[in-house]
Amino acid sequence: MKKKWIVTTAAAAMLLTAASGVYAGAKLQEVKAYLNSSIQLKFNGTPVQPRDEKGNAVLPITYNGTTYLPVRAVADVMGIAVSYNPETYTVELGEKSEGVAIAKGFESMYYTKDPAQTTYQGKDYKEAYFDNAGSKRSSSFMLFPKGKYQKLYLQVAAVGEDIDNFFIEDSEKNVKLKTEKVAVKDGLKTIVVDISGVNELFIYADVENKGALFVPLTTSYYK
User: Carries keyword Cell cycle (predicted)?
Assistant: First the structure.
């Protein structure tokens, strides 16, 4: 019988997490299925081994003539962010339906809620990263998406002087994901970066003597 490759939310719920109590209230139906070690997976012609979030090898499940693939493992291979909400029994693939502001849990010596520093071009953003130290310097901070999101929408503005060197890097792999020039004339610039599978981000800028870097934390978000 020809096998079909299907990823379902039911399979996703079972394979995304094994936390105690995750099935409470779920509409589960017990079935007899088989771990199928004979199935091999290729992506763009290259053999791959599906693995869970801890790096352990996982196998497809065959039930009633249909083969079910572990959704997290397949999403990781294809570079698609995946998360599971146990409260709503919802698997989310790719970008989230709503953005999550980077302000939550943000830490830096240049983090501020001072309206004099969180206001840019007449708008108060309430929370911001504002480095106006007043010397030629490296300005940087870390973000921790923890592999949960597909995209980062980061808003940045150069104040006083252009920023010729600005980049966003996958900190674990030391790979630059985006390099930009941020000019004063750009105003508040939105930089969009694919961060699927990325746990830690390093954001870096070279700031001139009379310049400053402004990043609103409430309107910069993961999705």
Answer: no
